[in-house]
Amino acid sequence: MENYEELFPFWTKLTDTEKSLIENSVYVEKYNKGMLMHRTEDSCKGLITVLHGQLRTYILSEEGREITLFRVNDEEVCVLSASCLMDTITFDVLIEATEDTEVLVLPAVMLNQVMEKNSYVELFLYKRATEKFSDVMWTMQQILFLKIDQRVAQFLWDEMVQKNSTTLSLTHDEIARYIGSAREVVTKVLKYMVKEGALELRRGTLIVLDKDMLRNFM
Amino acid sequence: MENYEELFPFWTKLTDTEKSLIENSVYVEKYNKGMLMHRTEDSCKGLITVLHGQLRTYILSEEGREITLFRVNDEEVCVLSASCLMDTITFDVLIEATEDTEVLVLPAVMLNQVMEKNSYVELFLYKRATEKFSDVMWTMQQILFLKIDQRVAQFLWDEMVQKNSTTLSLTHDEIARYIGSAREVVTKVLKYMVKEGALELRRGTLIVLDKDMLRNFM
Fold first, then answer.
1. A78, A95 in Cβ contact below 8 A?
2. Out of B126, B134, B140, whose CB is closest to A126?
3. Inter-chain contact A88–B127, Cβ cutoff 8 Å?
4. CA distance B152 to B148
5. N or C: which end of chain B has fewer CB atoms below 10 A?
6. pLDDT band per the 50, 70, 90 thresholds, residue A1
7. Over the range B34-50, which residues count as b (16 or more CB within 10 Å of their CB) and which as e?
């Protein structure tokens, strides 16, 4: 059993009936790396919490260009999969598993029922949505105002910290999608960083040789 | 006196004490066209409602490039001036009056007191913030995915509809700031639209001659 109290701060504000309503309808789903969990045309699944793995939320232009908005890690909530429960959310996103991922689903229909009577649940959803607003603002400023070499360096730094390793399994194409750029541009930046001695490139892998130098690009 | 019930859907959920707390601390402020109402380093003013006029919310890069996030019109709430009351909002913005503007201010200190006891007020703030999240997503998609001529046409179309006039008082520089582009680029696009017969340009004024043609650029 999951620790609901830890995952959902509204848990202590629920009645016993509401608690069992949730406990009886909650389920676990697994996604393999690369699987699309949510498409723009999909119906609304509900509130999703990542148990293990990682989700990537992104938008897609008509020409197929991807912009990563934010990623969702262990014990974090992916609130945009429950956007149908919030009538002030009028945009749509795609959600993909970037690793083998296990999620906990609180189905939308059930959650809607609980929300109608309990404003703490509603407040929880809107708060988490506003958190993602902050993430998106950060992403937007990165895209609009940072130069491409800074964005690549910032991304590699974050990856290095998150994976706690200087060896990163990433293709140039993946980096380009994460930072909202083109593969050709990323390849050019990475080659420059290799020439300067900050990185070493191998097939599908990238090794950070000089952390200080990488930081200087940021 | 303002009609609080109409402006604030949480009004009917307040106790009499909370109502008089608000009524006794609310005040009206006036800003001339072009005045900055909120800087990033400013302390948090509170919840602002536009009574007459218009506010523009934007972000600024280190090199001084502006990106307009959204505009706030009559009877709309500018929730980001109350961002200190929402701990999930971690970014900062600038807010400017684009016309002579009158606003109603619910001071942050007082609102914080009411919020602590009344979750409807908190929910109202977060809902309005999420609405702005949707606006920003729309803006971001415009900037990232639409070509510049489409963005100019879309902007002029929206202005024409909002002002209910085909004569628009706008400089090239203003248009560039609204759509997050450079003045030189906007001038080029406008000249092309003039050549095609969609627009006529006069000093500081722009006349839409052919609505259908403008729409075709979108």
1. yes
2. B126
3. yes
4. 6
5. N
6. low
7. eeebbeeeeebbbbbbb
Q: Chain B: residue nearest A86 by CA?
A: B127
What does the alpha-carbon distance between residue A187 and residue A26 come to, in Å, rounded to a whole number?
Answer: 44
Please answer whether residues B78 and B50 qualify as being in contact, where contact means their C-beta atoms are separated by less than 8 angstroms.
Answer: yes
pTM, entire model? 0.78
Distance from CA of B207 to the nearest CA of A (A): 31
Question: What average pLDDT does the segment A30-36 reach?
Answer: 94
- DSSP summary character for residue B34: T
Residue B33 tokens read as: 């066209």
Top-confidence residue, B106 or A141: B106
Structure tokens at A152: 């690549």
- Please write down the long-range contacts of B108-114, taking CB distance under 8 Å and 24 or more positions apart: B108/B44, B108/B45, B108/B46, B108/B47, B108/B82, B108/B84, B109/B46, B110/B21, B110/B22, B110/B25, B110/B46, B111/B46, B111/B47, B111/B82, B111/B85, B112/B85, B113/B21, B114/B14, B114/B18, B114/B21, B114/B22
Which DSSP letter does residue B54 get? -
Band the pLDDT of A38: cuts 50, 70, 90: confident
Q: Which amino acid is at B60?
A: L
Distance CA B103, CA B78 (A): 10
| Residue A54: φ, ψ to 5° | -155, 140
CA–CA distance from A176 to each of A20, A26, A69, A139, B57 (Å)? 45, 36, 13, 14, 30
What interface predicted TM-score (ipTM) does this complex get?
A: 0.75
Of the CA atoms within 13 Å of residue A64, those in its CB half-sphere come to 1
Structure tokens at B191: 């000249």
Distance from CA of B179 to the nearest CA of A (A): 12
